[in-house]
């Protein structure tokens, strides 16, 4: 005996999400059947809307409803700094900090030889264009993740941008605030010692 | 800065699912944006269809597209046994075993004083009706879970049905096949000793 078709379809759809296997998908599908009709309708509409109404900002690559995005359109922001991130969601994390008021640029990934991803697969050429057309940009802050791929991409960008006379910086790596040295990994400790600051 | 409205909506919807908090919901929402358009459309339709096209079988309470459900409609099945489960998905688990060929009855929950759920909130009266109207039913197998609530519900049903001269049985509890005695909990071991069988 098989699940009725509508359940089977829904289980299949849930299984396409990351980290959700057959068992979780089945649980979610049965949960959906017990949900309020309004909530399910809203969920269904939100899925389509997220796909249809969202686009990439033509300037920075952020995910947005309007083009340019609210950050690029906001002329009160500091136009001299561009912070380069891997993913659009990283912008939200930065904005939550409330201490950075410059612009952003989203790479949509990092260079990864294993996945066959080179610089041409990333949103890099538009960054270079942007730097050439906007002499107001004085500093590019590279905020790719501290993974081998993120580091390699940061290095690549630095070599590409520096010759144009633009300052290139990288986010500091070291111990997390509130963390215990005892549990820090060696690479993080090494970065913390290397980047030590005078008191 | 806030997420664009379509993302915020989608995060809200994902957060209504069990076991998914703000961070997972955000991750799933951004994943959805990167999904194939066809998959998202199929997902959206599956959600609505699961809510709209599925109903409870008027006989057994199973989730079904047709009424009665395929199991109740199948006259080749053993009409003398009714297996009582908590949830419709438990029927699937039983059917996968392929050794039970009787009928089912879904309670849609268990009695739980903490949640204020009494016998009248469960699909019990239709079970009693069914037993009264079908003298072919000779045995009711109670397959509620081995939780305090499941045990109490089993006991309640047993007292309700037995006086009508119908045999009432309960699934055996004991050690899982392939499990190690060393790691068994005391209640399971007690049930295993209590229910020991002659070799």
What does this structure look like?
Chains A, B: This is Recombination protein RecR. Chains A, B: It holds the Pfam family RecR_HhH. Chains A, B: InterPro entries: DNA_Rcmb_RecR (IPR000093), Rcmb_RecR (IPR023627), Rcmb_RecR_Znf (IPR015967), TOPRIM_dom (IPR006171), TOPRIM_RecR (IPR034137). Chains A, B: Keywords: DNA damage, DNA recombination, DNA repair, Metal-binding, Zinc, Zinc-finger. The structure is a homodimer of 199-residue chains. By secondary structure, the first copy, chain A, is of the alpha/beta class. The first copy, chain A, folds into 2 domains: 49 residues, Helicase, Ruva Protein, domain 3 (Orthogonal Bundle), CATH 1.10.8; 112 residues, Dna Topoisomerase Vi A Subunit, Chain: A, domain 2 (3-Layer(aba) Sandwich). The first copy, chain A, is 43% helix and 11% strand. Chain A contains 8 helices and 6 strands, in the order H-H-H-E-E-H-E-H-E-H-E-H-E-H. In chain A, the strands form 2 sheets. The first copy, chain A, has a 4-stranded parallel sheet. The longest helix of chain A has 16 residues. The mean pLDDT of chain A is 91.
Summarize, please.
Two copies of one chain form a homodimer. The first copy, chain A, has 199 residues and is of the alpha/beta class.
What key attributes describe this structure?
homodimer; 199 residues; Helicase, Ruva Protein, domain 3; Dna Topoisomerase Vi A Subunit, Chain: A, domain 2; two-stranded antiparallel ribbon; 8 helices; 6 strands; DNA_Rcmb_RecR (chains A, B); DNA recombination (chains A, B); Rcmb_RecR (chains A, B)
